[in-house]
Amino acid sequence: MNEPYAVEMRGIRKQFGSMIANDNVDFAVKAGEVHALLGENGAGKSTLLSMLSGVYRSTGGDILIHGRKVNIRSPKDALALGIGMVFQQFRLVHTLTAAENIVLGEKSSVWRGASWMRRKMEEIGAVADRFGLNIAADRPVWRMSVGEQQRVEIVKVLYRGADIILLDEPTSVLTPGEAGQLFETLRQLRAAGKTIILTTHKLREVMEIADRISVMRKGRMLKTMSRFETSERELAQLMVGKPPAGVMKPEARLPGRPLLEVDGLTVDAGEGRAAVRDLSLAVREGEIVGIAGVAGNGQSELAEALAGLRPWSGGTIRVCGREWKRSSVRMAIESGVSLVPENRMRSGLAGSLDIVDNLLLKTYRRPERSRFGLLRGSRNRAWARSLVERFDVRAAGLDTPVRQLSGGNQQKLLLAREADRDPKLMIAVHPTQGLDIGAAESVHRLLLGLRDAGRGVLLISEDLDEVLQLSDRILVMFGGTIIGEMSRDNADRERIGLYMAGLRDVPGEEAS
Amino acid sequence: MNGKAAAAGMEAEGAGARRRAAMSRLRIEFDPVRDRSPWWAPIAAAAAALAVCALFIAANGMDPLAVYKKMLTGAFGTRFGVTETLVKSIPLLLCGIGVSVAYRISFWNIGAEGQFLAGAMAATAVTIYLPDLPAAAALPLMTLAGIAAGGLWGLMTAVPRAYFQVNELISSLMLNYVALLLLDYFVFGPWRDPGGLNFPGSPMFTAEQSLPAFGRTRLHFGLVFALAAVLLYAFLFRYTRWGYELRLIGSNPEAARNAGINLNRQLLLVMLASGGLAGLAGMAEVSGVAHRLMYGISPGYGYTAIIVAWIARLHPLGLILSAFLFGGLIVGGYSVQTIGLPSATSEMLQGAVLFFVIAGAALGRIRIRRVR
Amino acid sequence: MDLIIQIVAAAMSSGTPLLFAVLGGILIERSGIIQLGAEGIMLMGAVTAALVCVRTGSLAAALLAVLAVSAALGLMHAFMTVSLRANQIVSGLAMTLFGSGLSAFLGRGIAGQPVPGAVPKLDLPFLEAVPVVGDLFAHLDALTWASFALVVGMHLYIYRTSWGLHLRALGDNPPTADVMGIPVTAFRYGCVIAGTMLIGIGGADLLLVFSPAWIEDMTAGRGWIAVALIIFARWNPVRALLVAYFFGALDALGFRIQLIGSDIPSYFLKMIPYAATLLVLMALGWRNRGKPSGSPESLGVPYIREQRL
Fold first, then answer.
1. Domain C2-308 in this protein, CATH class
2. Structural domain spans, chain C
3. Among the four residues A21, A61, B108, C130, which has the most C-beta atoms within 10 Å?
4. Does the CA dihedral A115-A120-A123-A124 come out positive or negative?
5. DSSP secondary structure string, B126-160?
6. Do A85 and A52 meet the contact criterion of CB atoms below 8 Å apart?
7. Does domain B63-340 have CATH number 1.10.3210?
8. Is A69:A114 a contact under the CB 8 Å cutoff?
9. Is B315 a residue whose pLDDT tops 80?
10. DSSP state of C257
11. Which residues are CB-contacts of A472 (< 8 A; sequence separation ≥ 6)?
12. Nearest Cα to Cα of residue A248 among A33, A34, A493, A443
């Protein structure tokens, strides 16, 4: 065991169809250290970890554990190698107790009478105590808090003898207090000689707990260094990258009356957590307001609330001066709010229906689309055809089921539908996700067109380039609230990166 | 709705299946979304089923071809046979349409049997408690009663699902039993025909209370109901706003919600319609064929209708053909009794056909790909 | 007192076939597969037992044959639902149809014939000392004792062995079970085949003990009742015993209701379990409406997750 590296991944490549999730990644973790994998969503960190834990198999490259080349084909292989993973969504059977979950899959004995169970509980207790983890082993999982469930997951891998422990975004489901407890646990594990790899997008955490840090972006490994060799600024810079060349520069405009005014909005996520916390923002006629931030900080919930899909528990929403009294989709539609959702196939389009049917989705009740309860067939088709041409949606025919269209065309269709309604406010969430450059550009042009026509656009995106390119004003969202704001003229990429990672004030920095 | 998929779970399951199969050079993948079995698949399934059953028949010392020929001529060969087949098709078609309507929004209406019985009972109630009405009043009233009772029975499956998260398989199954027992109660008890020699059935309906028949056959006006229902069904889903809303729910409930559609309300309306159709079938059966309510009035029409609907894949023309086919199978089953076979032989065939259709549909989802 | 003995005896003889079927169904559904084919499987079990008994006169051969035939049916169902991932509801209905039809076809030659080879009784004279029901239990047939053993065995299996733990995990959360190394496919095949065999035995018991002559469609809906009872017993073997006997008693009570001095027609009494199941589920649903994740009582439908997939 003189190998310095517990885990080495060389030239790892992982492809899902045509999407490259990991592109020639080299990654090495020293034994007995806490190593953080830093990057935004979609950077490829979870995929990398999944290959170590046996959930995925790589399409290329080698993995070495303690210096020995291995082939991890399943979670069992990973376990045999001493690798244990704590997933973001826990793999626990809710109706069983913690102890039952921990011994699940064990091949030991068939019979488990009361004495057997007692023995197991003692063993589990011993493991838990050794690493300072407090769990009630005989309590059913559904009765536990999220923090406790996570501890059960950790005890589970420790019980199986794991000495390389992987954690995927472990603090995403925890309160700040619970996160602190987790870090204490990680320190104890490290003191006991365990190797820990965790993924995160939160800079503060990284600086607090990690010995070494690896930054990934868009499937590539950028740099690995020790905590002392870097600074938050550098990490933020690496995370968000450099601005691309040849950028569309929209002309400056004077914004008009306020279209959307959100004041102190709070939206619950369930289980007592607030997804959106005391959030305030405004969008005016003729401007694009961009919200940057890593996904999972309340963006989806905010968009849903603004579209009438999710009720809010605090604050006010005002559209064109009129306050929304309650959450209603129809009211949102009628107020002139349009939503392009982040997952178009899940909530925006009906995959098995054809183009015409999908275009009708928001407006089928209008008199020009249906009368006396009947759809106006030929009229609708003509209208659909004109929309398809105008927005350059490429498809075999109007009767093609929408799921057969390419991602770009699907998105164009969605935008066509929403834009045609002539909305006052367009909310676009991750609108160019999964699109190629050409399709993305069409989308951008569309949004700019809306803005130039005096409408308001709220752009929520993880793609910082996109936000910087299009927005007149840039807000950064973290932890459910707006953590920073700047206009396009004094936009500072680095500062945005810091905001995105949760740092409002950086020591040794002056406010700009 | 039924359509919500545990996406994460499905991915892991899929990943598991893919992983294991990937040990060979060929990778067998399941496409959970596309169910593109070719149109000739049910026919191939029927052929395969006939072949397998032929083996059973032959192994038991009978000539399969003779048996099949008997069934065929019995069901379609004579004029009587054809009309009988049509008579049997009527309840299958009506219930089948009802089941299809529900299935359009991914809702399993296993309760068609109970809804059928409810309609039959309601129509009979009219004859018992308002016995002296003229045909012009009795028949429309019976029809309305049948539809209303069936619709109500259908609602009793929808409401628990919409507001109490009770799975519809369970609730419809339970209600089927309740309806059956209710029927037994009535025909063995208060509604039993006093002059009927203890036969568990209501008094015979008068001419005023019976649906008119065509000519001297047993084919009755219920056929008109059934065909009208098919046309309405086809029209509804293709041309109307409500049909569009339902298609949307069936395709993507999330998207439907985004369009401002109230899913619960739609569920209730759909089950009202679905149950109403089955109830209408019940009314037509007691009023047009049996001319009374009796024990065993339904040989499982509601359950067979599920199969009819499933094979037809929601297609109106498919429903007609499928109902006709199964009606023929039932009649064919009766006719093989003359050569010593139990009528349940046709059930064996129905089951076999269904198995092969299911297997065929499932196989249609397999994609075989080469791994690098 | 005599009445009570009569009722208990009737409950047991009528309820035992149900019990076998329900236990088999519990095994199948706990692994995550819906079982709607019980009626057809029971009929096949009955006709197989009848045919083999008539041909060979050997009880042992009959039971073996029943097990073999049921296993074959189970294999078929498992293949369709687990490997081909076919629609489980329709598959179950197909099984019912096919089983009903095939059994009627196969049994036409021996319809109505009394079947030789009764199930031996287990004489346990020491039980006669037990008050009231002692005489009854002292001379019960072997299959009924087998059903008792099965209840105990299954209870221990599900709640006290690691296999049972795996089963519970599998039914509740297949992806997690998979990740924990539990062989989902093999387990399901095993459960479906074993469960189907039990259901077949239920059919055989109906023929051998309850009414020893093959009649077409002799289960008269008992298979469907078993399907409902699985839910009513909430997938628990001990509760299955209680529920099956309760039904058996209702069945036997039938027209003897006047003896208890009750006016309520038997039909309404028989409705109680079904209506009660529905109402109980609604009450549970109402209680859990605030919890998005669902409390374990929602385990009441372990197979649904699989079905949705």
1. mainly alpha
2. 2-308
3. A21
4. negative
5. HHHHSTT--HHHHHHHHHHHHHHHHHHHHHHHHHH
6. yes
7. no
8. no
9. yes
10. G
11. A250, A253, A255, A287, A288, A289, A451, A487, A488
12. A443
| Burial readout B104-124 (b: 16 or more C-beta within 10 A, e: otherwise) | bbebbbbbbbbbbbbbbbbbb
A240 lies in a domain? no
Q: Which of B95, B165, B172 to mutate to test the interface with C (most CBs of C within 10 A)?
A: B165
Q: Answer yes or no: do A219 and A311 share one domain.
A: no
For residue A175, what are the domain limits?
5-230
Cα distance between residue A445 and residue A450, in whole Å: 9
Domain end: A422, A452, A467, which one? A422
Q: Are residues A275 and A149 in the same domain?
A: no
* Nearest C-alpha in A relative to C181: A105
Contact B150, B118 (CB under 8 A): yes
Q: A456-487: string of b/e by CB count within 10 Å (b at 16+)?
A: bbbbbbbbbbbbbbbbbbbbbbbbbbbbbebe
Q: Please tell me the predicted confidence (pLDDT) of residue A56.
A: 82
Residues of C in Cβ contact (< 8 Å) with B181:
267-268, 270-271, 274
Q: What are phi and psi of A487, to 5 degrees?
A: -90, 170
Binding partners of A (≥3 Cβ pairs within 8 A):
B, C
* Confidence grade of residue C1 (pLDDT, cut at 50, 70, 90): low
Q: Do C101 and B167 touch (CB under 8 A)?
A: no
Assess whether pLDDT exceeds 70 at residue C307. Answer: no
Q: Are residues A23 and A42 in the same domain?
A: yes
More confident residue, A234 or C180: A234
Domain total of chain A? 3
- Condensed to tens digits (0 to 9), the pLDDT of residues B253-266 reads 888 988 888 999 99
Buried b (16+ CB within 10 A) or exposed e, A352-377: bbbbbbbbbbbbbeeeebbeeeebbe
More confident residue, A214 or A21: A214
Q: Which residues have C-beta within 8 Å of that of residue C226, sequence separation ≥ 6?
A: C18, C21, C22, C25, C38, C42, C199, C202
Same-domain pairing of A188 and A215: yes
Integer Cα distance of C156 and A33 in angstroms: 45
CATH of the domain at A46: 3.40.50.300
Could A93 and C296 be called an inter-chain contact, meaning their C-beta atoms sit closer than 8 Å?
no
Length of chain A: 512
**Residues A188, A143 share a domain:** yes
Cβ of B347 within 8 Å of Cβ of C98? The answer is yes
- With pLDDT > 70 as the criterion, what percentage of chain B qualifies? 87
* Residues making up chain C, counted from first to last: 309
Our CA-based measurement puts residue C71 at a distance from the nearest CA of chain A, in whole angstroms, of 24
Tokens representing residue B211 in the block = 């649906």
- The complex scores an ipTM of 0.77
pTM recorded for the entire structure: 0.77
Point out the domain boundary residue: A405, A422, A439: A422
How distant, in Å, are the alpha carbons of A338, A372, B244, B253 from that of B241?
22, 9, 5, 16
Amino acid A509: pLDDT: 44
pLDDT at B35 over 70: no
Instruction: Give the model's pLDDT for residue A2.
Output: 56
Helices (H), A44-200: 45-52, 75-80, 98-102, 114-130, 146-159, 176-191
Give residue-wise pLDDT tens across range C126-140. Answer: 777 777 777 777 778
Partners of residue C140 on adjacent β-strands: C122
Please, which residues have CB within 8 angstroms of residue A370's CB and are 6 or more apart in sequence? A364, A376, B241, B244
Q: What is the C-alpha separation between C229 and A100, in angstroms, rounded?
A: 28
Interval A85-95: pLDDT, tens: 998 878 888 87
Q: Residues A432-472: pLDDT tens digits?
A: 877 777 778 888 888 888 888 888 999 998 888 888 888 99
A400 and A366 together in one domain: yes
Residue B369 has pLDDT above 70, yes or no: no
Flag if B259 and A329 touch (Cβ within 8 Å): yes
The whole-number pLDDT of residue B10 equals 38
